[in-house]
Design a protein that fits this description.
The protein has 192 residues and is an all-alpha fold. 78% of the residues lie in helices and 0% in strands.
Length: 192
């Protein structure tokens, strides 16, 4: 990704994460990026193209975050370690990266009404599933893909609630740990 294109997309993420989708215009992105008028539209001719570009940029940023998680989860995966590592990610995504999280949620809501964005989200979800389900296999899940999405759904809910109503005592690791322990208990009760 070129420097100027990345600059425009990062500005679009800030617009989405601070002002919402209704305020996402080429002009607003140019102003946020501090670039000459028309720069955003030179890179992204339509609003849909801009949204698709933002979704791709968010995928890049999220991939970096999840790669850090993966680096911390090398070797044997244990429930408490997994919960702590993903909990730390949640604290980052609701603290220093809060604007990125809000932009992601705004864009996902927008994707519900745009087939092209929906397809792009589905491809990204498939990528996540292809490598993250291994953590759940390592934890002993007989249904790693399903359990991965159960935990990711909890994580998305935790992020949304914390971004909407910040709680200074926010402890995402506890909620993730409780869910994983409940899932683990159901795995061990399954007939062999």
């Amino acid at each position: 990704m070129t420097g100027r294109r990345e600059q425009v997309l990062d500005a679009a993420i800030r617009v989405l994460g601070t002002q919402g989708t209704r305020q996402l215009t080429h002009r607003a992105v140019d102003a946020e990026a501090g670039v000459p008028s028309g720069t955003a539209s030179n890179h992204f001719r339509t609003r849909d193209a801009l949204l698709a570009g933002v979704l791709e940029r968010l995928r890049e940023l999220e991939t970096r975050s999840w790669e850090r998680v993966a680096a911390e989860l090398t070797g044997a995966v244990e429930i408490d370690v997994f919960a702590d590592v993903v909990g730390e990610l949640a604290l980052e995504l609701t603290g220093p990266a809060r604007v990125v999280t809000l932009a992601r949620h705004a864009l996902l809501a927008e994707a519900a009404f745009h087939g092209g964005l929906r397809e792009q989200v589905a491809v990204q979800q498939g990528r996540i599933e292809s490598w993250a389900a291994d953590w759940f296999r390592a934890l002993g899940s007989p249904h790693p893909e399903r359990d991965l999405w159960t935990v990711l759904s909890l994580l998305d809910g935790l992020l949304a609630h914390q971004c909407l109503s910040p709680d200074p005592a926010f402890d995402p690791a506890s909620a993730i740990r409780a869910l994983l322990r409940g899932l683990h208990e159901s795995w061990t009760r399954l007939p062999q």
